[in-house]
């Protein structure tokens, strides 16, 4: 029997991982862990490829029920992260976004819109201890901020240019991102 396990340990490990991936209670943490391992810092979009947002008119609702409009951030540096609580790549990048929010909340306007119910969002934030501002969609975002995939994150300059557009998970708490934000805030 000992010889059997010794010769087949890799097959047993492989099947054990497959079994763990079948159940959501173990699948999501594994997906989050692997996603964090392979996430890199996003890159700035080349100047000639940066899109100018036609309008920042986008109505959102806080999870407390207060209506706000993205246009109130016109002239400020903005970070928008489209996400969901059921999305492992979204969950994987949340700690790095929280760290960025902690350090830049007074110089960058952060928006974390989701289409989920407010109770689900509140429970998730409370459980994880996140303090960044979460919103619910009141209407569709401007065309340049729409995405078929999440997470989708946009960093917008004071002039309304999309400086970073990242679809998929990333490590947002990096020197590269902080350098970009510092430059945008100083402009």
UniProtKB/TrEMBL annotation:
Organism per entry: Jejudonia soesokkakensis
Tell me what this protein is called: TlpA family protein disulfide reductase
The residues covered by the Thioredoxin domain are 49-186
Q: What's the domain of life for this entry?
A: Bacteria
Q: Name one Pfam family in it.
A: Redoxin
């Amino acid at each position: 029997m000992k010889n059997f396990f010794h010769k087949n340990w890799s097959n047993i490990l492989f099947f054990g991982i497959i079994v763990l991936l079948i159940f959501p209670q173990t699948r999501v943490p594994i997906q989050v862990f692997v996603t964090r391992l392979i996430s890199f810092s996003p890159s700035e979009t080349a100047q000639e490829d940066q899109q100018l947002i036609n309008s920042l008119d986008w109505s959102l609702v806080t999870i407390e029920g207060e209506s706000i409009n993205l246009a109130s951030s016109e002239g400020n540096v903005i970070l928008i992260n489209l996400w969901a609580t059921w999305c492992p790549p979204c969950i994987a990048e949340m700690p790095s976004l929280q760290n960025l929010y902690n350090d830049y909340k007074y110089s960058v306007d952060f928006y974390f819109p989701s289409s989920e119910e407010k109770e689900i969002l509140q429970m998730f934030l409370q459980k994880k201890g996140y303090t960044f501002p979460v919103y619910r969609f009141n209407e569709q975002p401007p065309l340049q901020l729409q995405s078929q995939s999440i997470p989708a994150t946009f960093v917008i300059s004071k002039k309304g240019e999309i400086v970073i557009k990242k679809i998929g998970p990333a490590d947002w708490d990096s020197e590269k991102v902080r350098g970009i934000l510092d430059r945008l805030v100083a402009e």
